[in-house]
Amino acid sequence: MPGDRDDGYGGPLRGSPREPLQPTAEQRAAWREMGREKFRDSEHQRYAQSHRTAESLRDAGRHGYQATVERYGREFASDLLANHRRAQPTRPEREMVGLLKELGAEEGRDYQREYKVSPGMYADFAIPDRKLAIEVHGGAHQAAFFLEKGMEARESRRTETYARAGWAVQVVTDRDLREGRDETRARMRETLAVSTGRRR
Q: What CA–CA distance (Å, rounded) separates 3 from 20?
């Protein structure tokens, strides 16, 4: 949920204090000019949420997404969540960023993170011009709690959405990154070479 980072397994990242954001004078001036529209600005949302206590965020978490949907629409709420995930990647996603960096790949040039494939659905990592997504599955994908909450059905819907949009998908698991890093690096090297036409 916004304001809480996770450890890659769906739990809070221990020992990570929340530091309220301090906007620049230019940002404050821009928000004053925007009036009430500032509440639709993702940067202002991030600033406002950073000044709430972790307890307040947890209490609001159950209803916050639905309230945002009702006020601004589902697509806007989904975009906010994607922005949060982009700013606060999970541990496996950070490891994937590091692995891609080792291969000389840069975000924004060679791939995009939290790329919108369709309304409400975003690829963890994407090479849009090749319609290739790389999904990083952390421990939550095998956790009993999330399986009971419908994780398998959710992933099935994502697979169907990718297929309808004509995207190919590669899945990299947390175990791939921890225990099979060399093989995963080789696979990603080949993926990037095929996708960009550049050998790494």
A: 10
